[in-house]
UniProtKB/TrEMBL annotation:
Residues 11-105 form the CoA-binding domain. PANTHER family: COA-BINDING DOMAIN-CONTAINING PROTEIN (PTHR33303:SF2), CYTOPLASMIC PROTEIN-RELATED (PTHR33303). This is CoA-binding domain-containing protein. Pfam families: CoA_binding_2. It comes from Desulfovibrio litoralis DSM 11393.
Amino acid sequence: MLFDETLKNLFLQSKNIAIIGAKDKAGQPVDNVGRYLIQAGFRVFPVHPVRENVWDLKTYRNLNEIQEPIDIVNLFRASEYCLAHAQEALRLTPLPKVFWMQQGISNMEAGKLLAAHGVKVVEDSCIMVDHARLLA
C-alpha cells in the first residue's frame, strides 16, 4: 500500500479517472464512488461494455476508446478480471499513474505487472474513502 503522503500527492496531480465497471445503479458502491469523484472535481470516464450513459456521461466499452490521458484507473470488477484490465491499462499512452483496485479486490499478478511498468498500484482500498480522509 502506498503511503498517505504519496496518495495525497497522486490525488492532487490527477485529473482524469476511468472507472471500470461503472454503473449508476442507486445504492451500489460504484455509483456512490463515481458520484463522489465527479463532485470532488475529477473528470470521470465511465467504462462498461454495454451501457452507453452512466452519470449522464458518455460511457466507453473499454479503456482504449478513451481519447484523453487517464491518470487513475479505478477497478470495480472481481479479482479474477484484474490481470486482463491491467494488461489493457498498459496499452494506454501515456500510462496511468495509478491502477486502483477497490475494497475487496486484489490480484498479485496484476500488481507485479503494473509495478514493473512504473504504474503505482493500490489494492483492496476505496478511492472515495482515501480521498475524503486525505483531502476533505
